[in-house]
Specification:
alpha/beta, TIM Barrel, 11 helices
Length: about 300
Amino acid sequence: MTTQLDQSHEARTARDAPLFSGLPGDLEVSFEFFPPKSEKMATTLWDSVATLSPLGPRFVSVTYGAGGSTRERTHEQVVRIQNEAGIPAAAHLTCVEATREEVDEVARHYWESGIRHIVALRGDMPDGGGKYVPHPGGYANAIELIAGLKKIAPFEISVAAYPEVHPDSPDAQTDIDNLKRKFDAGATRAITQFFFDTECFFDFRERAAAAGIEGEIVPGIMPVMSFAAVQRMSSMCGTAIPGWMEGLFDGLDERPAARQLVSATIAAELCRRLYAGGVRQFHFYTLNRAELSYAICHMLGKRPVGDAA
């Protein structure tokens, strides 16, 4: 009898729950792209920008390759997005394999081009080249980079955060202390590495607040385009992959449409739980593929600017 009552309660809860339909769309979103390496990839990028720009993102960011390997392409795309798409654009900037003078020159060029937002990162060695080594005469880390940028111009600055601890950090508290120093140096917000456990994010947010961090902690959302690719990225950045996730993507390698449906469902549910915990800002790692991010935003109630919700 108890089992039947429990099942009846669960059935009523499932029936009465509004799922995503009751969400008012009162959230802010931002999107991350990477600079294209070919004309075909450039077309994909601009198709993505065109798809997502109606959602009124508060900014979009463009990544920056280690050692400046994509420096020119990053600059070109950032300026083009801001000028042609009319979206506030942020450029990634790292400390890797560059002197302070070289980094400062890039930053000044951005400011002169009308870019007011920098995503300031320490960066990783090129081609997975082992432990990070500061460039002689360069900025040693993101904290020094932020301070240097603030001397050049009053940039808005976003930085990275790691709910599951940066791979180079000895422990979680050291990671939080380092994040606090980034904010003290002038950071505006922190965008987290992608994750799949909401409790991990909420715990991180609480520990950040306890450490006196008052700036935004924005969850970074990674829709899974390829489970194998996410496994590789997770191994590099220390993100834990839930055991159940592999089973959901099993057998979908040759079914990309089905894989996207599963991916959108997982990411949307992650965002719904974050939303229930009070999160109202989301940053999507689009991998230059817009439809997944658009679908997730739609399920969260986000509609094109000017449309009825």
